[in-house]
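Hello Y.,

Per our agreement to keep a running log of every chain we model this quarter, I'm adding this entry. I've kept the format consistent with earlier entries: sequence first, then predicted structure.
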Amino acid sequence: MIDLGRLRALHAVALHGSVNRAAEVLGYTPSAVSQQLAKLERETRTTLIERQGRGIVLTDAAQQLASTAARILELVEDAELTLEEQRGQAIGTLSIAAFPTAARGLLPPALARLIDEHDRLDVRVVETDPFEAVAAVNRGEIDIAIVHDWHNTPLGLPEGLSRVKLGSDPADVLVPATHRLAGKEFVRAEDLVGERWICQPVGSICHEWLIRTMRRAGVEPEVAYSVAEYQTQLAMLARGLGIGLLPRLGRGPVPDGVVVVPLQPAPSRRLYAVWRTTTSRRPAITVTLATLKAAWPSRDTA
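Predicted structure for the entry above:
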């Protein structure tokens, strides 16, 4: 009988394209994954991998076996879900992926409540960008992803994923206290022509939102500083290095020397929880989604 763990290793290598990436996802060492593949070769008396440069490629036989493994693993997951559903309790391991400000501004109270009310649920958290978080859920590596998008920069979901809106997170323009716009009641996009921006890196949803919003106003924004962490952006703002647009969730206190100026029309990003539709009946998914919704601030985040 073929060992299920070895099939899981083969499936991960086929899915992710390398032993190292498969090991990272499975929580093994690359050596352990290679050993699983070698044992599977002996078990099946079939050549499954071939060396190519410094890496490996799967043979045609391995690809066929990996396809079969995917169906077997789906059946195993379905059996596990059925058993958990019958127990009616949130148990086992549940993984959550969240972008940094959600991890800081939303997750702490939600996690504390989950741990307090469901002591048989082992929750694990990883910080990652929304695009990668959705992909990880789709691949079955993560159970729930907390993601965001903007009205003019929607985040598409692959077929087979479900989502629920957690809330809306307003964003403000932040400028140094000595800036020409610091005393304004509000600003519009056209008021920001010629400014040097401190913004998240290219490829992030926030960066795409800024580019689209300013271009719609006929302005090509100059992103002088590509910085992922909001606390670093705030430190740069306090030194007068540029201006930024920061959502309120997880932003933290605004330092001295920085002024918040509302932008009109007021931008707001939408936060969602995303999960695989097939796991909807799992009690751990149900209670976690309910807890995340309950943890959302009842007023505008600050």
